[in-house]
Amino acid sequence: MAAAGRSRLWAPMYSQKELTSKKRDEFEDILEERRQSSDLRYAMKCYTPVIYKGLSACKPSAIKDSVLQSEQVQYVIKQLSKEMGESTDIIQEEAIEILDEMGHNLHIGVIRFFAFSLNKIFKRLFQKVCVNEEGIQKLQQAIQEHPVVLLPSHRSYIDFLMLSYLLYTYDLALPVIAAGMDFLGMKIVGELLRRSGAFFMRRTFGGNRLYWAVFAEYVKTMLRNGYAPIEFFLEGTRSRTAKTLTPKFGLLSIVMEPFFKREVFDTYLVPISISYERILEESLYAYELLGVPKPKESTSGLLKARKILSDNFGSIHVYFGQPVSLRTLASGRIDRCPYRLVPRHLPQRLSEDIQEFVTDVAYKMELLQIENMVLSPWVLIASVLLQNLPAIDFELLVEKTLWLKGLTQAFGGFLEWPDNLCANKAVTSSLALHSNIVSLVNGQVVLNDVGMEDGATEELVFKQALSILMCGAYRNQLLNVFVRPSLVAVALQMTQSFRKEEIYSCFNFLRDIFSDEFIFFPGIALKDFEEGCFLLTKCDVIQVTPQEILVTEKGNSVAVFLAALFRPFMEGYQIISRYLSKETKEAFTEKQFILGIRNFAFQLLETGSTQCYEVLSSDLQKNALAAFVRLDVVKRMKTTNGFTYTVNKEAFNKTAEMFDSRIPIRKLVTARL
Amino acid sequence: MAAAAEAAAGGGPGSQPAAQRRLRILSGHLQGSPASRAPEAERFLSPSQCRAGGAAERPVASTIPKKRQEILKWNGWGYNDSKFIFNKKGQAEFTGKRYRLSGMVLPVLKEWMEKTLGASLEHKITSRAFLNTSDVPPSIVNEEFLQDLRATKISYSQEAEDRVFRAHGHCLHEMFVLREGMFKRIPDIVIWPGCHDDVVKIVELACKHNLCIIPFGGGTSVSSALECPADERRTIVSLDTSQMNQILWIDEKNLTAHIEAGIIGQDLERQLGESGYCTGHEPDSMEFSSLGGWVATRASGMKKNIYGNIEDLVVHIKMVTPRGVIEKSCQVPRMSTGPDIHHFIMGSEGTLGVVTEVTIKIRPIPEYQKYGSVVFPNFERGVACLREIAKQRCAPASIRLVDNAQFQFGHALKPQVASIFTSFLDGLKKFYITKFKGFDPNELCVATLLFEGDREKVLQHEKQVYDIAAKFGGLAAGEDNGQRGYMLTFVIAYLRDLGLDYYVIGESFETSVPWDRVIDLCRNVKERIVRECKEKGVQFAPFSTCRVTQTYDAGACVYFYFAFNYRGISDPIHVYEQIETAAREEILANGGSLSHHHGVGKLRKQWMKESISDVGLGMLKSVKEYVDPNNIFGNRNLL
């Protein structure tokens, strides 16, 4: 972001500092009531949601018509017809096809069917579904005032089913949902989803102007009419690692456009955090990350998944955040309609100012999601466990978990400790819930499949990696809350210095490197650093003087823990940088890179020269590659079929040194205070 | 022009030659009030040596005397004898005899004020009754200049009342100051030139003595244009053009008239009417505003669809500047001689000089005039209909679309019904529209129409417009509703004074906007006002309403009213100003203009650069620099 400076002054800031003193709403378990009443009656209940400004509902077919007839779409049709020499009728036909493929077909009967079956399924799968009812009330208010965009986090297919189910339960307008086209492959389910309000978008359609025009206009028409909230996932896809993915901007900029054009007075963005105590797809994700391709969505696949119905997936927490007024966010930044000098229906490239604003809003919304993500005890357990492999004494685990609980709360994490259970019981029940990953053997907690001596080493590595990645996905939920103080701790370790300036520059380097791994609000490195220091100071880990940062005696163990929390990423990136500088020649594609690094890492793991199993995660690999491209040490070039990469060896070695010459030492320099 | 009083036309049926009727009513204002005869004597005091030749052998007195305060309110809008009051029964009443509504009781107005604005008769504040002359800043005029001035025999005054009266326009904050405080700076002397040559002399003297001149026409400005810059150290001369009010000649072959710029609208139309002509330029303020003021602010008239705006009407302008007199050498309909110098003058807002004489197009008075109205199910349909009418270029002389809130406001101003039969009819109409036609009484809106021309053509035109309206779900709603709609315009200016007595402040503002953004802009601006009021701690919901008042090929002019009850707020004017600024920001954000016809003055200066670009502003500045290097015309408007 070249133009950072000035405009970012008004940027919607993120402050973890404020988070630590923030009061959050209480949760209600909605399944409790459901368990006591008839599913059928629930499905047939009187459903009369309030809608935006009392507008009368509009048939899906009418929406399609108005999209097709809109100036925007007609303009593009005419343009294309002129350019390609085709008649407008043919292109119009194409547009109709796109609309039919895409359009939702919300149907109350289907909703009731879903309500009925989801009720049954959810009651079986989950112990509790907890919702903050205050958030629901605010949402209800918001829906009546202005068009609403729901922005849930995305960890599971359950996400949008769950949201629609909740909104139905609370008698709120059902959203229309932007879903990936992959669902359409599922024959009956695809159609059912469509009728329950999903509309579909192709994953990539950048080049297809007609598709873009039709899609954008479709979304905007629904938004302007205000007849249903729009729902989509900022992350674009389900996060396989449970870390929040960096946001996608396309859809967000589309839903913001009616406001930019002042076609609506305001738009509410509602961040929604959905946290799972146990993610339905946990093992699937781990396989995927290790390069076993994900099965294509199919109805039969879903039926096979029925066996999971007998399993227990703990609790779900859904937190509806405070609706954020887009107008308020834009005030002082985008004060003028950027379309004052051209007709509003002309397709226009977003100005830099607006792009930057969209980016900031996207990050802001993701940070709000993160803020209200509920952390279960298991998240803490997994974090402790991963630092104490292969096994940890149960009592010690409980003790450390409790200690981490305190730290997490001090950092503003949103912990839900089940019903004031004593630590012992909470840990035991968490272990039970996740018995597919860990077991309690002779008072020792171990990862499953560890210690099996038979089988080829390669298979052992694979199995070990599987367990660690699954476990890691839970630890990852902690990382965005810990990232600021932790990176300060890592920087302290790497620099072996007291000098604030030096530590900050190292922090800044790390923040930059990891900006695809963790969510940082763009352009506020110094503030992030200060917040990290603030939180550490608050916990008596460090003392900050105008020039220096000193680790306290008793804070040493905390700092070591914090640095170790991010060790897999540090080491993973080191291994990848070593691979890139030594093993690659010529240009390579991303696919080749992933295969190459996987083999390279397998060798290291087999020979035992590293314990960093997480380097096998394709997510980490891709992020690292992107980071090196961002640092300009790997060049990315567009070719006819995708991108190729080349390593700029000279520049690269310098960066690699940054990592390698400063391999974190476990011991921190503590000041004698 | 300004937020303002339009003379209500008489109540007869459409069969009468309606334009003449309107004129008769206007002249009725004059006849009806003994006060207005007073200036007869005054007239002979002013030197008339420059009234040479032309048609004006016998000078005609203006309706408004030199001592304006004799018939006009010194601290509010319009005539002293006309105002809203609550009578002993607690019912609203409009006093005086000048207007159609005069002397009538308005039974539902009180309830409307209570319901819509949360006003209450128990909470009343009264303005001071008289100007306290000891508060008025002293007149500082250098004796040498006074000697020179006396030598010219041009009439002048240094009296406090005269000076205060010319220190302001009719912005809300100016009214507030008059009621409760005093301006920091007011003119030091008021001068009444009697003709163009007088103006030349005054400007020469001002240059010689380095004075600041602020031209004053009708005083209806709503842009703080008349406000004296507080830090102006020089003597400020208020140059009141009101005594230059003669029609110098009428040219029937070319249908033009040459007129002194100080003439006010009602006098101009009445006097032309005596010869069977009119200009057709009827800004809402035409009772008080002057020809020169129209030119200086780029005014727009209600009937511009037939007659055009001021820039379409003007054929020739004479203006006195510190550099000399600027005018074209001939009186032609159009010329290609570089950029039109008239366009430096029109909208210059008194920053370059004084307009002294104008040649303006005239038309024969139309034979027939007819009001009309159409009810639409909602504002969107109404706007779509206006757009279609504009597209077909068949707009009547005037067409205005008021939103639902203003429609209901119109009802609040209904006078007491004369008979049970009328009220029964009203009920029936309401039933037909809301129950039979299914219009939502909280959504529907009304377009008011005014047709003018040959009787036959008017009827034909009327049918064409109603046919288009029908396509947009519009129902004809009668002449009476149309007429009341136009009455609203002038009434509202008087109503503000009533509101001020009950903690209600209000203002109007306007913009122009492309057709495709009309609805979005109206909705967003109204909503912004509501939201800002809430945020600024206004305890009562504001009255926020708009109407589309002019249609053009490429867009429309939109007029907003907003008012709120400020009980419980310590600094209402500051809050009000913040809200007004926010509303203007919203207009600009929505692609509306800074002003359609009110002008910039000092109130909207802050947005000039953004409105016309750096270079544009530089161009205007360089003209000012050339024409008036010493800033003699120092009202500091516009730039």
TrEMBL record, chain A:
One Pfam match: GPAT_C
EC number, as in UniProt: 2.3.1.42
Keyword Membrane assigned: yes
Topology relative to the membrane: Peripheral membrane protein
Highest taxon above the source species: Eukaryota
One GO term (biological process): cerebellum morphogenesis
Catalysed reaction equations from the record: dihydroxyacetone phosphate + hexadecanoyl-CoA = 1-hexadecanoylglycerone 3-phosphate + CoA; dihydroxyacetone phosphate + an acyl-CoA = a 1-acylglycerone 3-phosphate + CoA
Domain Phospholipid/glycerol acyltransferase: 148-277
GO molecular function: glycerol-3-phosphate O-acyltransferase activity; glycerone-phosphate O-acyltransferase activity
One Gene Ontology cellular component annotation held by this UniProt entry: cell junction
Entry's localization field: Peroxisome membrane
Pathways per UniProt: Lipid metabolism; Membrane lipid metabolism; glycerophospholipid metabolism; Phospholipid metabolism
Record's keyword annotation contains Zinc-finger: no
Keywords annotated in UniProt: Acetylation, Acyltransferase, Membrane, Peroxisome, Phosphoprotein, Transferase
Functional description taken from the UniProt entry: Dihydroxyacetonephosphate acyltransferase catalyzing the first step in the biosynthesis of plasmalogens, a subset of phospholipids that differ from other glycerolipids by having an alkyl chain attached through a vinyl ether linkage at the sn-1 position of the glycerol backbone, and which unique physical properties have an impact on various aspects of cell signaling and membrane biology.
Record note on quaternary structure: Part of a heterotrimeric complex composed of GNPAT, AGPS and a modified form of GNPAT.
Record-stated family: Belongs to the GPAT/DAPAT family.
Protein name: Dihydroxyacetone phosphate acyltransferase
Gene: GNPAT
TrEMBL record, chain B:
Region (Disordered): 1-22
GO cellular component, one term: peroxisomal membrane
Keywords recorded for this protein, A-Z: Acetylation, FAD, Flavoprotein, Lipid biosynthesis, Lipid metabolism, Membrane, Peroxisome, Phosphoprotein, Transferase, Transit peptide
Limits of the FAD-binding PCMH-type domain: 183-365
Binding of substrate, residues: R496
Any single GO BP term: ether lipid biosynthetic process
The family this protein is said to belong to: Belongs to the FAD-binding oxidoreductase/transferase type 4 family.
Function statement: Catalyzes the exchange of an acyl for a long-chain alkyl group and the formation of the ether bond in the biosynthesis of ether phospholipids.
Protein name per its UniProtKB record: Alkylglycerone-phosphate synthase
Organism whose genome encodes this protein: Terrapene triunguis (Three-toed box turtle)
Gene behind the chain: AGPS
